[in-house]
Amino acid sequence: MKELRSFISDSEMLSIRKQCELIDMNRSIYYYKPCAEKPENLHYMRLMDEFWLKHPTYGVLQMQDFLKGKGYSVNHKRVRRLLRKMGIMAIYPKKNLSKLGHASYIRPYLLRNLTIERPNQAWAIDITYIPMEKGFMYLTAIIDLYSRYVVGWDISNSLEATHSLEVLKKAIKTHGAPEIINSDQGSQFTSALWTNYLDNAEIKVSMDGKGRAIDNIFIERLWRTVKQDYVYLHPAQNGWELHQGLKDFFIRYNTKKTHQGIGRRIPLMVYQQCA
């Protein structure tokens, strides 16, 4: 990774983005810096992340009790801060929903009772925290709901809306535009940047209802598979190693792994046969 980074220079005529493309290096890896969290906090975050996959309704106090049961006495304020940094919130009905994002950009959930019968009819996008050996990054992925094919993904060291939009644009460039794209009501998606782009592209915007864990269930299952089959088993040392590992994982997920939800078929075969 250090050798690849040495090929990139701010003084070149080409942009950092173009230089990264030429050497086939993800731009977010170039900008990645190990987080400043203490090792003990990274350990708590890793434990809470795995626990939350199984218990997504658990909030701050229950997470605090979980850590206490593991032998760690952690102040609830620290637990809350770490969960926010991880982008994790307990799934349960809440009042004042506009706190997560701008209420004016929240859209209704369009997938309820909708029959998904072809590729690119509906995509789902989400972001998840990925623990590493000495830090963490965030993974954004987009899945085609008909075929379970992952049409786009990338990692970043921030939760900025611009990154999610870049992942979407790349997916559309490669696979064409979906009719509908569904997300949660996170600040990345309840923003003018996100909704204006989709409106201009004539893509319908759908968002999960707050407190409804099943609205984006397919991508939640994807996160469980990513973390249990790769991330937890092979903690990455750095951003480059993480990107390469995830690249191999998604190739295997899309082209070799069968899925019960699509009749024990392979996502790529279903996506290509019907696209």
Number of strands: 5
- Determine the number of helices (DSSP H or I, runs of at least 4 residues): 11
Count of spatially separate domains: 3
| Helix-strand category | alpha/beta
Query: Helicity, in percent?
Result: 40-55%
Radius of gyration: 19 Å
Write the layout of secondary structure elements.
Elements: H1 2-5, H2 16-22, H3 27-31, H4 39-54, H5 60-69, H6 76-86, E1 122-132, E2 135-144, E3 150-156, H7 161-175, E4 180-183, H8 192-200, E5 204-207, H9 217-231, H10 239-255, H11 267-274
Parallel strand pairs: 1-4, 4-5
Antiparallel strand pairs: 1-2, 2-3
Helix pairs in contact: 4-6, 5-6
Concise structural overview:
This protein is of the alpha/beta class. It has helices at residues 2-5, 16-22, 27-31, 39-54, 60-69, 76-86, 161-175, 192-200, 217-231, 239-255, 267-274, and strands spanning 122-132, 135-144, 150-156, 180-183, 204-207.
